[in-house]
Amino acid sequence: HMKSILLPTDFSNNSMNAINYAMELYKNEACNFYILNVQKASSFISDDLMTVNSSATIYNTIVDAAKKSISNIITRITKKYDNKNHHFEGIVDYDNFIDSINQVTKTYNIDLIIMGTNGASGLEKVIFGSNTSRVMQRCRVPVLAIPVGCKLSSLSKIAFTTNHLTLFSFEALKVLKEVVSLHNSKLYILHVADQFQLAQKQLQNMNFFNTHFEGAEHDYIDVRDKDMFKTVHQYIKDNHIEMFAMI
To answer: Looking at the whole model, is its pTM more than 0.85?
Structure first.
């Protein structure tokens, strides 16, 4: 089964960087890449006074421009990486961003979404721009978010964090397992408990990890809820973690 990867783009440098990251991450894998640009319907239907005819013209103009930009991206990437394993298709949609992504994910059996973090504002969006975090919360497939300017050098260390409130299924962690084996990475499983949590599912999950990630290293930390971000961030820094995974 060839991997199907969705690459949403707004044509920014940031989203180009995420596309380049995807090319490097999967350079030895056969993949279908779907490059998607979503235009907000509202951006060209400005008021009810517009005749159908002229709004259709504006619509066509915008869609054509977006299609052109996508094919430019595909041309550039094909030239740069010249990877016979990689196939590209461009998609332009006008819709709500999340609805569009969910629709495309279903239609093309997407395995993974790779996108840049975008337009962060406010403290809660320090790690993820608003669109990125919405996609993570509301899409049914794994999302890999690439911070501004992040390049793939090595992936020797990947961390996965869990609080054992969920039982894991192999399906949910398939992409993580693939990336670990593709890049020969060392996986660190960070078990996080706060003072109110009983790790009742821990035993079943440990069996799960021992079956599917037998080479992994296990670390345990207790953390108060409000220090969660700080603690995990510190762990990533102290251990030189290059990719961070969570459910």
So the answer is: yes
